[in-house]
Amino acid sequence: xxxxxxxxxxxxxxxxxxxxxxxxxxxxxxxxxxxxxxxxxxxxxxxxxxxxxxxxxxxxxxxxxxxxxxxxxxxxxxxxxxxxxxxxxxxxxxxxxxxxxxxxxxxxxxxxxxxxxxxxxxxxxxxxxxxxx
Length: 133
Fold this sequence. Notes:
This protein has 2 helices and 3 strands, in the order ααβββ. The protein is mostly helical.
């Protein structure tokens, strides 16, 4: 009886199964890391906008932030106009890294406070907000 060297079908199936499991674990870990990275980017973007608003307010010695009570949708345009004026406090207004939507800017009732938020967090259950009390 002549014996040939090689792998049996069972051995090949076991190896393919192990490799498939490792690839699946790696892929899910990669997706989770991408989501965490985008969430970190969202937080950094909101902090960048907050810093630009504070520099604007400090430079012009104003006591309120961009605010139009008649049209809250216009408030973000006012924000962009204010902090991208003659003296640039921010080069480009950041957008969400995945959806490319603008972040939400909501002025307070008096215009002396605001909330910046991202409702598109992927790994965290709550939206991320930056408040200015």
